Amino acid sequence: MYYSPYFYYNGCQLGIGTQEKYKTDFYLKTNNLNLLNNISKESKIKEIIIYHPALIQLFSNPCLSFEHLDNKDIFTLITKNSPKKVIEINNNNIKEIELGGVFKYSLNSAKTNLNINTENYLKLVLINEAPIDDFMVYLNEINVFINAYIPTGLKAYKTKIRTENDIVMEVVHRDLGKQLECSPFEPRFVKNDFFEYIEKIYKIQNLRNRVDNKLLPLDFKKPTSLEDQFCYYFRYIDMYMGSLGIKNNFKRIETFINQNLNLFELRDQNKNLANEINSLRNHLIHEGYYFPNKEFEVTSFEIVLYKKTLDYNWLDRIIIVMKEGVFKIIYKEILNLDLDQDKLKSFCKHN
Hints:
The protein has about 350 residues and is of the alpha+beta class. The protein contains 8 helices and 14 strands. Helix 7 packs antiparallel against helix 8.
């Protein structure tokens, strides 16, 4: 049974008239029709249970144990009271995060073929009940956080909510992913385990409140063109340096370059590099992506210094450096995590 909280009462039955045109963002799914009388657009949610294809790589499913004993592989399924990892947050309306697992198995009639399917989940327990419409902002946030740790680019594929009166229903939403699993991801450049990472990022970051959020973490949606990527990382650097009190945007990018000189190749380390990067940003933002004669003006405080040919090999190298520098800002300066520098460098060059 599917139900949208925006359906209205038509006589004694939930539904819409045959002549009505109707649009909704999400539905709630249940096999118990009686539950629908207790759900409305005024309902509140107190828990969100999220299934994401990367979670199976991030921690072991607690319902399934494995050991090799006397040349035998022994699998044990825990059917009741399986252990769960609970992390206390008490910040940004997140009381705690529970990480656990579930499983399904099937055995054919001849008892010759046993299939076991496991899923890991992440449950957000809220401090204060939230409007039912807000579930998507919590889901978007965890999608970003998971992909900032293991950049698969995938979204959660299933979500359940628990309402204030303990009704559990599955959410059907157009932005939920379709992929149920993902290939092992390498390189994983964050050395800290997922439990430590998720606790830190939830205690420091809040994507749901742009006022309290000191800095937006990287989204997992990768910009496509080189120009888009350049503007994307430039904006991040500009925002972060601005949060440190550096008011002039030229000084912001200049500070970033000085702090990351070791990332730039020697031929890029010239006194005009900050002017070139800042001028390219100004051209892309204000003039667009068209370059007359394949050139743009390099300026310093509105004074034209020279014209530079836009070399896309040069731009690609600049983007790689900006990306690596941005990842270091996020993971080292903000989250204080331990990074594998070689894996991070390789990731930035090839992704």
